[in-house]
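My current task is to audit a protein record that another person submitted. My question to you is simply how this chain folds and whether the tokens agree. This is what I was given:
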Amino acid sequence: MDVPLSAWLIVFGAIAVMLAVDLFAHRTAHVIGVREAAAWSVAWVLVAVGFGVGVWVVAGAEFGQQYFAGYLIEKSLSVDNAFVWAIIFSAFAVPRQYQHRVLFLGVVGALLLRGVFIAAGAILIESFSWVLYLFAAFLIFTGYRMIRQRNEHVHPEKSPVLRVFRRLVPMTDAFHEQRLLIRRGGVLLATPLLAVLVLVEVTDVVFAVDSIPAIFAVTSEPFIVFAANAFAILGLRAMYFLLADLMHRFVYLKIGLALVLVWVGVKMLLLDLFYVPTTVSLLVVASIIGVSIVLRLRATRGQGRRPVAAESAGAFRMASAEEIAALEPVWGAGSRRAGSSRTEKDRTEKGRTEKGRT
């Protein structure tokens, strides 16, 4: 597939515009309800499908099917990612109105990181074709491990990343609205929201290790791999708010996702012996996901929405209005003046104390 530079610029431009629209629509922190999340989910899916139709018309049916197969794989694997997000937010007791800002920044970081991973993967495959067999073996092993550990859950409070973050970065115990950093007493401090963002980014890196090799099983075209990843990730935030309180009903999710990984791993492993048409691969993936959804709806019939429960990662609170009003500027000359004035004030008070003692 000969992809002109203009096509890449169109994709990057579309992503930038959609991120700007999303940021503007959520510029004020608020709780995102089911209806709003559903509307945004439909909008993101329509954008992704519209792009796929464009690929189909311009590049042909084969590349169009490759895009939709990659998009479906990435979208399916993203559900597990959203489940981990729900556990992280629950462990830190992140207020619902501040969760979108974390996910927005997380998606921006995910797009950049996955772009790097995709470029590296494409270069490896181009230079060493046998890498595909390593990808295949890794996907099959990951699927097998996912089935065996399907009842195990993530524990953010035990994360080594969180332990290192707390050791290296001074952190306050209070949420200061949507701020990631604050300055208090001349000292720069992280809020719990920054720790959550770090965990979200690390989680995406872990999931990218599975999803990107899986997409390379259905297409070797970096443009399609990136586009499928990007459009699936862009709609992930809305899908999270839509499904966050329904995660307990995804009883067969890990089994379905594991079978998808095993399927694409086997397909990649047999690449030189037997070619599986993209249409067949797309139908198999759609069937696995569809059956797992039907089974989980039947198994959890009658169960309503409820938040995900997780072990606490710490005692966090909401900063008072007085605490927020007393914050110093984080960046710029204002923060330096605030720090220097406080230092001068401390010196003056110390001098008065010593003078009083004499």
About this structure: Confidence is low (pLDDT under 50) at residues 333-358. The radius of gyration is 24 Å. The chain has two domains: 5-327, 330-358. The chain is about 70% helix and 5% strand.
